[in-house]
Design a protein that fits this description.
Length: about 375
C-alpha cells in the first residue's frame, strides 16, 4: 500500500511540467491562429485594393478611349463639314448669278419688243461684266498708295434693234486712259501711274461707269466704220467714229488696226491709231507687239503720246493665261518722239472657285522721267464676274 503512494508523489513534478507545456503549446497555437487570420485579412484587403485599382484603370482607359474616339470623329467630320459649306456657298452664288442673268434677259426681251416684232429664233440677250480693281504702287516720292475701283461694262443684244442700232453700256476708252502700266501724264486725270489719289473715289467711279451709247450699224455696212452717239463720264455727250481692220493674216502672222475719232462736249477732240502685230509660236502661245499713237485737244491743252508694248502670251488649260514683256511710253515734242517711261511687266489670269469668276494679277516696274521718279514697283489685283 505504501509503494503506490511513493510512485504518485514521484510523478507529480512530471505531470506538472506536462500541464505547463500543454498550456504553453495551446497559447502558441492561439497566437499563430490569430496571426494567420490577420494575414488572411490583410491579404484580402490587398486583393480588394488591387481590384479597385484595376477598376479605376479600366474606367480611365475606357474614358480615354471614348474621348479619343470622339476627337477622331470630330477630326474626320471637319473636311466633310467644310465641303458641305463650300457646296452650299457655291450653289447660293450660282443661284444669285442665274437670277441676275434672268432679270437682264427679261429686260432685254422687253426692250427688244419696243422696236418691233421679236424673232423667237433670235431672242434678245444681255451680258454684264463686273470688275473690282485694287491697285498698288510703291511711289518713290509720294509713298505707298492703294486705290480701289469698281467698274461695270455690259451690252444688250437686241436683234430687232440691231438692224439699225446697238446699245453699248460702258466705255472701254475710259479704261485705256487710266491703264495701270501707262507712264505718260496723259494716262489719267489723277496722276500718271494709273492709281487714284484716294483709296476709293466715289465721284470718279460714278463718272467712269455712267456711260452709254447707241451704235448705228447701217453706217458700218455702207461706209466700213461704226458710228456711236452717247454720254460718257456722266455729262460728256459725244460722237465717235471707229474702224477695225485685219490688214494681213497668213500662216503664223496677223496684222490688224484699231482706229477712232471722238468728239465730246467736254472732252472735245480725241484721235487714236493702233497697229497690232501677232506671231503664233504654237497653238497655245504667241508674241504680240502693239504700237499706238493718241492725240487729244481739250481747250488750250493739246497733247500727243505714244506707247509700244511687246508681250509673249501663253494659254493653258482651264482658261489660264500668262503674259510677260516690256513696255515703253512717251510723248511727241515738236514732232519728235521722246521716251518718258519704260520697264517690264508680268500678268497672270485664271478662273477661281466658279467658272464665271476670274482672278488677275499684274506686276510692273516702271519709271517716270517727267516726275523725276526712278523705277518702282506697282501692281494690280483684279476680281471679275461675268453675267
Amino acid at each position: 500500500m505504501n509503494k503506490p503512494t511513493k510512485i504518485s508523489c514521484s510523478l507529480l513534478p512530471l505531470l506538472t511540467c506536462l500541464c505547463l507545456s500543454s498550456a504553453a503549446i495551446a497559447e502558441d497555437s492561439s497566437q499563430n491562429k490569430a496571426s494567420t487570420n490577420n494575414d488572411s485579412i490583410e491579404t484580402d484587403s490587398v486583393q480588394t485594393n488591387d481590384i479597385e485599382t484595376q477598376n479605376v484603370s479600366m474606367e480611365t482607359e475606357g474614358s480615354s478611349s471614348i474621348e479619343a474616339s470622339i476627337e477622331a470623329d470630330d477630326t474626320e467630320d471637319e473636311p466633310g463639314m467644310l465641303t458641305t459649306i463650300n457646296q452650299e456657298a457655291a450653289e447660293w452664288a450660282d443661284g444669285q448669278r442665274e437670277e441676275v442673268k434672268g432679270k437682264l434677259g427679261d429686260w432685254a426681251h422687253i426692250m427688244d419688243d419696243w422696236f418691233g416684232e421679236p424673232d423667237p429664233n433670235k431672242p434678245a440677250s444681255a451680258s454684264l461684266r463686273v470688275v473690282l480693281d485694287t491697285r498698288w504702287a510703291d511711289d518713290p516720292i509720294e509713298g505707298s498708295q492703294v486705290s480701289v475701283k469698281p467698274r461695270i461694262r455690259g451690252r444688250l443684244k437686241l436683234p430687232v434693234l440691231e438692224k439699225r442700232l446697238s446699245l453699248i453700256i460702258g466705255d472701254e476708252d475710259l479704261d485705256e486712259e487710266r491703264i495701270l502700266t501707262q507712264g505718260s501724264k496723259g494716262s489719267n486725270s489723277n496722276n500718271n501711274q494709273g492709281y487714284q489719289e484716294k483709296t476709293y473715289d466715289r465721284k470718279q467711279t460714278r463718272d467712269d461707269n455712267a456711260s452709254i451709247a447707241l451704235r448705228w450699224s447701217k453706217i458700218e455696212e455702207a461706209l466700213g466704220f461704226d458710228a456711236d452717239i452717247g454720254i460718257r463720264s456722266g455729262d460728256d455727250v459725244y460722237l465717235k467714229l471707229s474702224a477695225d481692220r485685219d490688214l494681213y493674216e497668213q500662216d503664223k502672222w496677223k496684222v490688224s488696226t484699231h482706229n477712232y475719232y471722238r468728239y465730246g462736249s467736254d472732252s472735245e477732240h480725241a484721235l487714236k491709231g493702233e497697229l497690232n502685230f501677232q506671231y503664233a509660236l504654237d497653238h497655245n502661245s504667241f508674241v504680240n507687239n502693239n504700237i499706238n499713237v493718241r492725240y487729244r485737244h481739250e481747250g488750250d491743252k493739246e497733247e500727243t503720246d505714244w506707247s509700244n508694248e511687246l508681250r509673249q502670251i501663253h494659254f493653258f488649260e482651264k482658261e489660264k493665261q500668262l503674259s510677260y514683256g516690256v513696255s515703253a511710253f512717251g510723248y511727241f515734242e515738236n514732232s519728235e518722239p521722246s521716251l518718258n517711261s519704260y520697264g517690264p511687266t508680268i500678268t497672270y489670269r485664271q478662273p477661281f472657285w466658279r467658272d464665271w469668276l476670274y482672278l488677275q494679277t499684274e506686276l510692273n516696274y516702271f519709271n517716270d522721267k517727267d516726275e523725276d521718279k526712278d523705277h518702282f514697283l506697282s501692281g494690280l489685283l483684279r476680281l471679275e464676274a461675268l453675267f
